[in-house]
Design goal:
two-stranded parallel sheet, three-stranded parallel sheet, about 200 residues, alpha/beta, 7 strands
């Protein structure tokens, strides 16, 4: 329900199908939140996800179960058109998972080509049928699904590459998103934070 076109699950499905077709040893899992809030969009998604190797999870998961789902994955994909932060990508990196993501907007503040599989894009007018992002002159990204598919194939076929990129992603996420920076920022405001480390090392 967090803007169907912005999250772009159809782009992810397209990239997955380009990369793997109907291979039974490759599985795409899409976690869908609150599908009843946008039944038409969910019907569209369900129709696109008819292959046996694409699975939709619509249950409401606890934070622990959600992280467990990410931890059980080999690759985390976010072919978004725009993100305000990129929580799923950040959690994937902190869990040491290689992340394939659109090279655009907020996630680029904590990921680069050294720690994530970045997908190039075209900048296009933001067109949101729900009207949430119907702002004059607004633009967002249209990720290159063929390039994303190439990343998926490379990572799926190369465990060492997955491990290397995942390790680099975790180090970058801890460096950029760990509690140390938060503690320093709050302390600079004159509020002493004693229970957070100030060394720059920490988890989410």
């Amino acid at each position: 329900a967090s803007s169907f076109v912005r999250k772009n699950p159809l782009g992810t499905i397209e990239a997955f199908r380009i990369a793997f077709g109907d291979r039974s040893d490759r599985l795409l899992v899409l976690k869908v939140g609150n599908p009843h809030h946008a039944p038409d969009d969910f019907a569209h998604l369900s129709a696109a996800a008819t292959a046996h190797n694409i699975h939709l999870i619509t249950d409401t998961l606890s934070p622990t179960a959600s992280l467990a789902l990410t931890a059980a994955s080999d690759i985390v994909v976010s072919l978004h058109r725009s993100e305000g932060f990129g929580l799923v990508a950040a959690e994937g990196m902190l869990l040491g998972k290689p992340v394939v993501a659109t090279h655009w907007s907020a996630p680029t503040e904590f990921m680069d080509a050294n720690c994530a599989a970045l997908v190039p894009y075209r900048q296009v007018p933001a067109q949101d049928p729900r009207g949430i992002y119907a702002v004059a002159g607004a633009t967002w990204a249209e990720p290159d699904t063929a390039h994303a598919a190439d990343w998926l194939k490379r990572l799926a076929d190369d465990p060492a590459l997955r491990r290397t990129l995942g390790d680099a992603g975790r180090a970058a996420a801890v460096r950029h998103l760990g509690t140390g920076r938060l503690a320093k920022a709050v302390n600079r405001l004159g509020v002493e934070v004693r229970h957070l480390p100030t060394s720059g090392v920490g988890g989410p």
